[in-house]
């Protein structure tokens, strides 16, 4: 390949430009890979290196040769029902490798949680001896995924293990407390309110650093980011790909070797101002701490003070750090770089802006006052626009066009394309389609007729059909003319290509699996059946998970009430929790949304916003193919997936427009009359 590296004493420039012939030699579709450059720099000073250009500075701090500090690491693993299958297998695989990499001086423990919390070694962390690691691997191999998700209880259990029993124990052998918390869903039992979980965790975890791993799109990544921000850590997404185990191991490697804790970098004599974050909870081997800011004119060297805690004690250093490549001080080597110092100057400016925007957005995430949130968002927006950064506060800003009246904002929300939109029908029947990458949904209601059987999903290529039987329910006072219906029976059939089809019938008291025999799973107890690659699992919280091969998973909830009102009736809710494996020709009331290319253009008119209904947050136009429909953004009480009923934002389709949205009359979805 045409790969060039220009190098001098103070500069390197890398070019990679393969010819079309070379690209075709790799793949008929060309190159679709990450371009990664591995490099290191010669940091001669323990205090790092400072570069100054045009009144901005950047300080790189990455001391070498420090001893690794042992750690107290707690692995907290979600084993709820949604982890069944590939995800739990990949987690076990990653944990086996991670446990083998623990150092003898490390201490560790493992917590698994669903609705109940189980701690491998009660009340303490244990030394990473060969025998303990071997026992831990055996424990991991025996993990079974089932139940709901009690995030709060799991965090509190971890806190009990990482907080030291006595001060003397910490001083005699200092270990860095780390909690690595992996979950693939949202809190569904116990304390489920995000603010309460955040408050409880912050009080309990103390000086421990929490690292949150959100496994897949259904994880509450926002909560994990806030938890990590509150507790000296970071949060990461782990994508549901074939290499998920490598992603998990890769993240662990980043935090496996703590060198310093509570690192404070201070710039003395008032030489620097508008400084980005300079207090860091931890410095890990292989990482780098970067601080940027502005300096007063004429500064030739920067006096830097550093305090941190290493293996044995608190360390305090103070030093004059020579400014490299400052104006009038460029080395002969740096001037030989093609392009001179202009690109570096721009880079230092942009690096300061990048870190400042990042910190403004994190502060906004943690702020609770709306006025403060708006102020922080405005500051981040202004900097993002000035330096041309795409961020969460600028990526949805579009210029006014002929389609948007003066004084409006046009925001495009895109759905579909990957076949992974979580969709569901529950209640009377209320349909919810989640718009990916956004915390918003598309909601509509279909008025059904008692005893109708509705075709919810049909995939002719995979041979999968889902039908739902409607039962009648009492009308609400004042709305006697509107029929109320719920699902009381669902059937899921799958043409497996084996010795016969699989038919799964779900009623209010049992799940019947037919094909190669007949199995009955009562919903009052846990049980699992696998037939011809189809797995049906009933957990102990009135939920049934149905896995139909790779990337097709359904969830059915059994809603029952101890003391029902006259309006409440036991019923079923149906959820497509993973529809990536469904083909593009999938149809049905819910199925048609799996590969739908839907967009919502939200138009908020600032001039007559007061005229809108109080419940309406915005108005918009929904487009799906050639159809377009007026919709309104509202806060609605949602029941989506195994979460408890909660408030969420929903683009609501008016009753009169639902048929036009679907493109077919209600009757075309009715497949049987009982």
From TrEMBL:
<keyword id="KW-0732">Signal</keyword>
<keyword id="KW-0646">Protease inhibitor</keyword>
<comment type="similarity">
    <text>Belongs to the ITIH family.</text>
</comment>
<dbReference type="InterPro" id="IPR050934">
    <property type="entry name" value="ITIH"/>
</dbReference>
<feature type="domain" description="VWFA">
    <location>
        <begin position="72"/>
        <end position="255"/>
    </location>
</feature>
<dbReference type="Pfam" id="PF06668">
    <property type="entry name" value="ITI_HC_C"/>
</dbReference>
<keyword id="KW-0964">Secreted</keyword>
<dbReference type="InterPro" id="IPR010600">
    <property type="entry name" value="ITI_HC_C"/>
</dbReference>
<dbReference type="GO" id="GO:0030212">
    <property type="term" value="P:hyaluronan metabolic process"/>
</dbReference>
<dbReference type="GO" id="GO:0005576">
    <property type="term" value="C:extracellular region"/>
</dbReference>
<keyword id="KW-0325">Glycoprotein</keyword>
<dbReference type="Pfam" id="PF00092">
    <property type="entry name" value="VWA"/>
</dbReference>
<dbReference type="GO" id="GO:0004867">
    <property type="term" value="F:serine-type endopeptidase inhibitor activity"/>
</dbReference>
<keyword id="KW-0722">Serine protease inhibitor</keyword>
<dbReference type="InterPro" id="IPR002035">
    <property type="entry name" value="VWF_A"/>
</dbReference>
<protein>
    <submittedName>
        <fullName>Inter-alpha-trypsin inhibitor heavy chain family member 6</fullName>
    </submittedName>
</protein>
<dbReference type="InterPro" id="IPR036465">
    <property type="entry name" value="vWFA_dom_sf"/>
</dbReference>
């Amino acid at each position: 390949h045409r790969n060039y590296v220009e190098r001098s004493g103070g500069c390197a420039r890398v070019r990679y430009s393969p010819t079309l012939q070379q690209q075709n030699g790799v793949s008929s579709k060309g190159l679709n890979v990450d371009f990664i450059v591995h490099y290191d720099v010669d940091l001669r000073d323990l205090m790092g290196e400072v570069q100054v250009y045009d009144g901005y500075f950047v300080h790189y701090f990455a001391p070498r040769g420090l001893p690794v500090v042992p750690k107290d690491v707690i692995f907290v693993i979600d084993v709820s029902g949604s982890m069944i299958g590939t995800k739990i297998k990949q987690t076990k695989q990653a944990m086996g490798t991670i446990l083998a990499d623990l150092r003898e001086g490390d201490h560790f423990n493992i917590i698994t949680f669903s609705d109940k919390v189980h701690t491998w070694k009660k009340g303490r962390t244990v030394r990473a001896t060969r025998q303990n690691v071997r026992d831990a691997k055996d424990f991991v191999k025996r993990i079974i995924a089932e139940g709901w998700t009690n995030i709060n209880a799991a965090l509190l259990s971890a806190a009990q293990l990482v907080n030291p029993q006595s001060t003397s124990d910490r001083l005699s052998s200092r270990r860095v407390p780390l909690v690595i918390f992996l979950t693939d869903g949202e809190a569904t039992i116990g304390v489920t309110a995000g603010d309460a979980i955040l408050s409880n965790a912050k009080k309990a975890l103390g000086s421990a650093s929490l690292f949150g791993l959100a496994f897949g799109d259904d994880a509450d990544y926002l909560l994990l980011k806030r938890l990590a921000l509150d507790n000296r850590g970071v949060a990461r997404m782990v994508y549901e790909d074939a290499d998920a185990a490598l992603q998990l191991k890769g993240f662990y490697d980043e935090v496996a070797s703590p060198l310093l804790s509570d690192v404070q970098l201070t710039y003395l004599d008032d030489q620097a101002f508008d400084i980005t974050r300079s207090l860091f909870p931890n410095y890990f081997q292989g990482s780098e701490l970067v601080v940027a800011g502005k300096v007063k004119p004429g500064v030739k060297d920067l006096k830097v003070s550093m305090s941190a805690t290493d293996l044995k004690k608190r360390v305090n250093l103070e030093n004059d750090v020579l400014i490299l490549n400052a104006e009038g001080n460029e080395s002969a080597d740096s001037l030989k770089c093609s392009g001179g110092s202009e690109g570096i100057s721009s880079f230092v400016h942009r690096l300061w802006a990048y870190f400042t925007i990042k910190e403004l957005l994190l502060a906004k995430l943690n702020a609770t006052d709306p006025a403060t949130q708006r102020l922080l968002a405005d500051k981040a927006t202004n900097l993002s626009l000035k330096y041309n950064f795409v961020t969460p506060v600028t990526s949805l800003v579009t210029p006014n066009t002929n389609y948007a009246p003066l004084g409006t904002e046009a925001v495009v929300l895109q759905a579909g394309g990957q076949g992974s939109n979580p969709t569901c029908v529950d209640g009377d029947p209320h349909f919810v389609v989640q718009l990916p990458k956004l915390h918003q949904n598309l909601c509509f209601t279909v008025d059904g007729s008692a005893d109708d059987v509705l075709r919810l999903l049909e995939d002719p290529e995979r041979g999968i059909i889902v039908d739902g039987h409607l039962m009648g329910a009492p009308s609400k006072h004042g709305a006697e003319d509107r029929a109320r219906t719920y699902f009381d029976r669902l059937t899921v059939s799958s043409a497996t290509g084996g010795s016969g089809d699989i038919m799964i019938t779900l009623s209010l008291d049992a799940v019947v699996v037919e094909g190669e025999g007949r199995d009955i799973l009562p919903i009052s107890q846990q049980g699992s059946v696998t037939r011809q690659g189809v797995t049906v699992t009933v957990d102990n919280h009135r939920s049934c998970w149905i896995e139909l091969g790779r990337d097709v998973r359904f969830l059915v909830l059994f809603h029952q009430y101890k003391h029902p009102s006259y309006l409440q009736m036991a019923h079923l809710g149906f959820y497509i929790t993973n529809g990536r494996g469904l083909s593009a020709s999938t149809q049905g009331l819910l199925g048609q949304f799996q590969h739908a290319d839907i967009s919502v253009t939200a138009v908020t008119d600032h001039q007559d916003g007061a005229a809108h209904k109080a419940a309406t947050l915005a108005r918009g136009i929904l487009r799906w193919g050639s159809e377009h429909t007026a919709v309104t953004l509202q806060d609605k009480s949602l029941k989506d997936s195994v979460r408890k009923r909660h408030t969420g934002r929903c683009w609501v389709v008016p009753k009169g427009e639902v048929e036009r949205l679907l493109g077919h009359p209600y009757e075309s979805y009715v497949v049987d009359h009982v």
